[in-house]
Amino acid sequence: MMEGAVSGDSPYEIVEQNSTSFVPPSARHGQVKDLFTLWFTTSIAPFPIVTGATIAAQSHLSLLWAISAILCGHLLGSLVLAACSAQGPQMGLAQMVQARGQFGRYGALLIVSISALLYLGFFTSNTVLAGQALHGLVPVIGIGVGGVLAALCAVTIGVLGYRTIHLLNRVGMWFMAAALLAAFACVMVRMPAAAWTLHGFNTLGWLLCFSTALVWNTSYACYTSDYSRYLPQTVGLRRPFLASLAGSAAGASLSFIFGAVVAASMPQLGDPMLAVSSATGLVGPVLLFLFLLNIISHNALNVYGAVLALITMLQTFIASWEPGRGARIGIAGVVLCGCLGVAGAFPDSAVPVFIDIVVALLIVLVPWVTINLCDFYILRKGRYDIASFFRADGGRYGLFDWPACTAFLIGVAVQIPITTNAFFTGPLVPLLHGINIGWLVSPPVTLLAFLALRKAR
Which GO MF terms does the UniProt record name (predicted)? Predict the structure, then answer.
């Protein structure tokens, strides 16, 4: 058996055996359509709805123009997500382990560390949101207690692993889709006709909606192959690509558009979720209950990804370690305690602060995904030496791949003058009327630097 491989999960095992090891052909299972249900279902949640409502209100676009920007942004962002997801069946590896083939064993640590921080931030934020949602549905349950209960459920699902995560999203898709369609119907009936054409078009507003939607799905790229790596290699690239593309684009677009429709129909209500509750009538409580379940299910992805990233970090320094289910369970417990501690200590500020941190860290995802896609699809055409990923010396990929690491830093640096977030505003941002275009400039610069440096090596 290949170094770093595991025998795989039996269909009768409840808890996933594997962690970051290579999934051999004998352990592959599942169907490509599961990628559609996963990315569709996880995208129907309060956070994207609130985001859609917020950007639609801030853009001062007509509803039709806002919808066009949302659709274009999510389609382009989903192309990136899907291109990373399609790598999973070919590699049989978690996304962050694969980064060693592009950046080297130690060179990959930076992106793996940032990826882990993103997961932990999302998990903590969603824990607070789930506590608030549960308290809203059952007022006798305090927000703190609700957060603990929701986090325990999410960690349990994450520990059970790959099969359970896909199963819940296969079942949940039908409930979430039906509830969202019913909510759409309730809002549309009450929406005044003038809401469709109010405001008109402006370029900056369209770019705001477009760029936000684009970055939304791109932000998932660092863990997409975690949920496709068990599929048989024979499924190829096209089928998982299309399934992931359709699921993520459809789910995220519907959530954003629903938020935009709610904002247009009830602009007097500043709180988007209050507007959703008011506009959906009797469907509202059902929708909020399903949202709570979906927050928990989505948070299972966050804790699952966080654990895999943390194991990858530790294994970088302990090459002989072959972590299994025991390691996943133990590290999941540490993640649970740590994130609950942060959420409990800062219940009012955890969500906005972590969202600000997550948005700020997205600056590193654009150059990483540019190098990832170029290396996989153009340079190596999906052919990697899997055993080298688990060797102490990095095998044929070494400890540092200097062209990739240098191009990555160049791709980050070029965004700084034109980037704005809660912690920093680049000197050129005012000239761009506050619009962040780093995602547009970084890919071609990173790509050219990467190719030039590899050629010069």
Answer: transmembrane transporter activity
Nearest-angstrom CA–CA distance, 180 and 150: 22
Note whether 143 and 351 are within 8 A (CB).
no
The better pLDDT of the pair 5, 261 is held by 261
Q: Domain ranges in the chain?
A: 27-456
Quote the tokens at residue 29: 């299972």
Give the separation between CA 152 and CA 158, rounded to whole angstroms: 10
Fold of 27-456: Hydantoin permease (1.10.4160)
The values of phi and psi at residue 420, to 5°, are -135, 135
* Chain position carrying tokens 């989903």: 78
Q: Nearest 5°: phi and psi at 5?
A: -95, 160
Q: Tell me the Cα Rg of the chain.
A: 22
C-beta of residue 167 within 8 angstroms of C-beta of residue 31: no
Q: What spatial distance separates the first Cα and last Cα of the chain, rounded to whole Å?
A: 34
Longest dimension (CA), the chain: 66
Q: Are 241 and 232 in contact (CB under 8 A)?
A: no
| Helices 402-413 and 365-373, axial angle in degrees (round to 10) | 140
Q: What does the alpha-carbon distance between residue 278 and residue 42 come to, in Å, rounded to a whole number?
A: 24
pLDDT tens column, 147-206: 999 999 999 999 999 999 999 999 999 999 998 888 888 888 877 777 777 778 888 889
- Reduced to 3 states, what is the DSSP secondary structure of residue 263? helix
